[in-house]
Amino acid sequence: MGRVKYAVICSSNQNRSMEAHALLSKKGFDVCSYGSGNNVKLPGPTPDQPNVYEFNTPYNDIYAELASKDNAFYTGNGILSMLDRNRKIKTAPERFADAKPLFDVIITCEERVFDQVLEVLEARDSRTFRPVHIINIDIKDNHEEATVGAALIFKMCQAFDQADDLEVKIEEVLDEFQRKHARTLLHSIAFY
């Protein structure tokens, strides 16, 4: 099949997708990462007071603002560390609904986001009728699970890249992955 182009998408806080983006990029994969929803939400001082940013707000700006608000708090909960990692990968968080590139495989990290991605793709006019595989692997939204999830996504992408014909072998690859890693996956196909 040649080089597979990947997108990893999660909810608006993007920890899981950025962890996977960092690992896949380091391993030489052609990958982008996105958030879903209308804005970026990061934990605030209380659950009902998140820090909300527009997509495309530079990670440097978000980092600086949270460090000035309460450096000890945002260092302690890992948000500044996460933002520091993110700003080394790309300039700002991006929203999938605004994405222009065409992907071969889109990986989501929760079922709700899987459904949102399908809605976005179905709402677009298909011009090329090029297939894109959307796969969901549920990953809890915390630092430890994001690391474990990134490793699983990496293994999945390795298997896709090793398939001699991804279009023909994808179900076989996904079945083997589910058996080997005891994870349930969702899979759908949409067209660009």
TrEMBL record:
It is found in: Nucleus. It holds the Pfam family Ssu72. The keyword Nucleotidyltransferase does not apply. Its EC number is 3.1.3.16. One of its GO terms (cellular component) is nucleus. InterPro entries: RNA_pol_II_suA (IPR006811). Keywords: Hydrolase, mRNA processing, Nucleus, Protein phosphatase. Protein phosphatase that catalyzes the dephosphorylation of the C-terminal domain of RNA polymerase II. Plays a role in RNA processing and termination. This is RNA polymerase II subunit A C-terminal domain phosphatase SSU72.
